[in-house]
Design brief:
Blueprint (H helix, E strand, L loop, with lengths): L2 E3 L4 E3 L7 H13 L14 E4 L2 E4 H4 L10 H4 L3 E6 L2 H15 L5 H6 L10 H6 L1 H4 L3 H7 L2 H5 L8 E4 L6 H9 L17 H4 L4 H10 L1 H7 L4
Parallel strand pairs: 2-5, 5-6
Antiparallel strand pairs: 1-2, 3-4
Length: 223
């Protein structure tokens, strides 16, 4: 349910590849007045050890579908989210999950019976995304924003993007009475600009615009 802080009248609804790890770590710091452990595992993921057991930040604030959120509770709270242009978001997904975590290497492709090339480049990844989404991690990180955030931007008190996310600590200070800086933990992509579009073929851009049409329609004014 992401971060539901009823005592503060606040809720953060998260979507993958929208700085959600960084925002969750920031909320953890403010809520618990301590840093989340910076020890990283063999996939470079941050974890917290408690009594010898590993806990990841997403265990504390899980990212789930909007329809599974506690709607009656959210209606009573001041909700915020972070959005991102789907073009840049899919580039980040590829860099993070395919290049960094190597989740589409040959053995994974075989085990998941994916009918597409292993270790795909960006445009191949987009072309065969339906097949690659047989991987649970790829699917989770490439589902539309509307799957996680719903289709009504008016449900949110504030909607941030990666260009103005530096304003988020100030927003949280209103609720916590103190602020912390955001650390960008998943540094796998720069924000959408002309340089990133150069990585995409014209066909890939059209495929993304079609696949994430609802994201552009519902949240496009905030990208």
């Amino acid at each position: 349910m992401s971060a539901i802080l009823r005592n503060l009248n606040l809720a953060y609804i998260s979507a993958p590849k929208c700085a959600c790890t960084s925002v969750k770590e920031l909320i953890f710091k403010l809520e618990n007045d301590c840093n989340f452990n910076r020890i990283r595992d063999n996939k470079n993921a941050i974890r917290l050890y408690i009594n010898g057991k590993r806990h990841y930040i997403h265990h504390f604030y899980p990212t789930i579908s909007y329809q599974d959120q506690p709607q009656q509770i959210l209606e009573q709270l001041q909700c915020f989210c972070v959005v991102r242009n789907p073009l840049d978001r899919i580039i980040s997904c590829h860099k993070n999950r395919v290049i960094q975590y190597k989740e589409l290497r040959s053995e994974q492709i075989t085990n998941l019976e994916i009918d597409a090339p292993s270790d795909p480049d960006l445009n191949t990844f987009i072309q065969y995304l339906d097949e690659y989404q047989k991987s649970p991690q790829i699917r989770h990180h490439s589902l539309p924003l509307t799957y996680f955030l719903g289709k009504n931007p008016e449900a949110y008190t504030r909607i941030f993007n990666l260009s103005n996310i530096n304003q988020l600590p100030g927003h949280l200070k209103k609720y916590f009475g103190r602020s912390k800086l955001i650390n960008h933990l998943q540094k796998s992509s720069s924000e959408f600009n002309q340089k990133t579009t150069d990585l995409l073929s014209a066909q890939s851009i059209e495929l993304i615009k079609s696949r994430y049409n609802n994201d552009f329609r519902c949240f496009g004014q905030y990208f």
